[in-house]
Fold this sequence. Notes:
254 residues, 11 helices, single chain, mainly alpha, 0% strand
Amino acid sequence: MDSIAILSGFAVGAIVGMTGVGGGSLMTPLLIGVFKLHPALAIGTDLWFAALTKTGGAVAHARHGHVDWRITQLLLAGSLPAALATIALMHATGITKGWAAALTFSLGIALLLTAVVVAFKKTWQSVGLRLERWLPESRKAPLTIASGVVLGVLVTLSSIGAGALGATLILLLYPRLAARRLVGTDIAHAVPLTLVAGIGHATLGHVDWALLAALLVGSLPGIWIGAQLTRRMPERIVRGLLCASLVTAGVKVI
């Protein structure tokens, strides 16, 4: 296996372990910039990377009762059809230069949005609490499904959005949701979405399976070590470095 791929997987895994975000948002630019993959191939490979690395977390959160299944089902009701429709459109039209440009632009926008979300992580709950006066319970279900549609399209086009962006949308609609249930619900939604989108990209030939295996070998110990380091590294510094990396990657991709 390529030692650079294993080290890259380790580095991304460590960041995920320290911050809880950054897997897809750092892996796809890495695959494009370092491994010189076509954007479509990088996105498909990263979708499988996300689905496989998050599965264990989803199972663990479900066992501990940290998943709000109603919110998860509402999100999936929007995101899965949106992902399937996007893949069907890509099949019907083929990956033309226009699609390649659209994928690259979507990736850059998703990176910049993720940077904003991470930078203002602590403010979203207060924004959600203020929105509650205009969001009665009757409106939350359709808005949750609509959020799922947005995430389904964005994740399928860029491989980014199921983590930090998904958690932020949930927090804006359900600001009183306990932190552990927010994380569990977000991961429980991300796994099937990234898996369905990943399968769709695989049918288009957009997965580098050998590279994926090497990345996974490095990421698993990286996630564990990152989780240990998070106790010693100041969150503000880690979040600042992550935001700077996301902005740099986003601007470069666009």
